[in-house]
Protein 1
Amino acid sequence: DIKYLIRPTELAKYFLKDVLKEGDVVVDATMGNGNDTLFLANIVGEKGKVISFDVQDLAIANTKKLLENNHINNVDLIQDGHENMDKYICDEISGGMFNLGYLPKGDHHIVTKGETTVVAIEKCLKFLKRNGMITMIIYHGHSEGKIEKEQVINYIENLDQSKFHVMKVDYINQTKESPILITIIKK
Ligand code: SAM
């Protein structure tokens, strides 16, 4: 289906579908309305687990409702910043999703910030197993997003090439604000 190739959010899922399997433990670093959490929960199945993070009540409530409606019960919903994820993860993880920015239709002041996002990526990569993959969507159309993009790109382009494959997908004929997809695979 062509839609997987023309939207960064869909392309992220397209890659993850290839890498993840039933029984895996994975992280949704920005649960928001729960769409990515639901996607991950369906892939890893009841034998697997999704650990999802968000700082705001609305995200937890919306995700809880979405999961209940879909009879999903393999998710830990954690109301804390992803920069603290090491407090909640004890297994190796096979993958993770970061969908940065603010909650669509929510409070645009509650937004991911470069400094804490970098800490979260660093922690996530520590738990990631060999051949595991992290995907990230960076929205840089808003002012905080511009700063975050700089900080995140600066961090990931300096990741040790003997340990990680880092890829950036940028749809370069779109407006400057078109979101960017990053994938990181652990060697
Ligand atoms: N993945 C979501 C979905 O499928 O609906 C969309 C995520 S939305 C673009 C970004 C989310 O990141 C917001 O809900 C926001 O509250 C959350 N967020 C902001 N700072 C955060 C932090 N430090 N840790 C975890 N989540 C954070």
Protein 2
Amino acid sequence: KPKGRLTAKEYIDGILKGDRVILSRGITIVESNLESDKKLAKEIIQAILPHSGNSIRIGITGVPGVGKSTFIEAFGKYLIGQGHKVGILSIDPSSQRSKGSILGDKTRMEELANMEDAYIRPSATGDTLGGVANKTGESMLLCEAAGYDIILIETVGVGQSETAVHGMTDFFLLLMLSGAGDELQGIKKGIMEMADMVVINKADGDNIKKSEMARRQYQNALHIFPLSESGWSPVVTTASAIKNIGIDTVWEEISKYKKQVDENGYFIKNRNHQQIKWMYNNINEELKQLFYGSKNIADHLSDLEKDIISSKISPVEAAQNIIQEFKNSI
Ligand code: GDP
């Protein structure tokens, strides 16, 4: 056992006891790319898996500046006041490039970060969204095993990462602003469609009237989407994260949702579906890496590209040839 590192049993016992320091160190192991850590991570996850899942997982997205961290600070404090333990994670595939991550700046949620019943973890870094999503997904399991019964997963509403967050959460919350069209806010239609709830934030001061108008517009816009399999009709509300207005309504709606999907069976069905999909996403990712990561294949592919351009081979035949070559090599 390398110096300073705990045994698997020490990690497992510590996490199950809700020890935040050990939880943090456990997540560091789960995030690590070292082979020796990967083995340890597997052991930890295997052991805590039966103790995970006892939470509601909430995805929170919205463009930078919409007020995500301010909202999470207010919402987290509210939930703790209701007797919950809140784990806060993020998915930010850009963090590798920008060298800073959302949630990275601890001062963003200062009060919450100092609360006993909150655990805040900045985004994992990685090369691929799939890799980052794996780390966040497994960190979530560790948080659940440590007794956090509400998990908030934050992401920036500008790319593919919302789909990843949607794929690992039970409820998807979209924060928006009034007075700007969704195009202006960089919110794609697909993201609106994933939302179980839209919250128009910054509904305070001069913004109150505009926010109410925006609320009605978005509520109408959401009506044109077909009802999701959950049977839940998305709701639109207004809130002020800074003034602590409308925060309780968000939790009331989420609780209503939870009750409905528990009763109609969608909660479990969706969780099961997500687990299976998580496996297939990994298979797809690994297969791609195995294929494109091979030097032989890479060389041959560039030859094939030339042959296609000079009409020596059809694209279909080229694909078949290279797959055959790959099959022969394994
Ligand atoms: P994020 O980038 O989405 O995490 O947004 P932040 O939480 O960092 O907020 C961006 C800016 O909007 C900050 O200056 C906040 O103080 C401000 N802000 C956040 N929530 C509200 C709100 O409810 N009302 C008003 N007026 N300002 C807010």
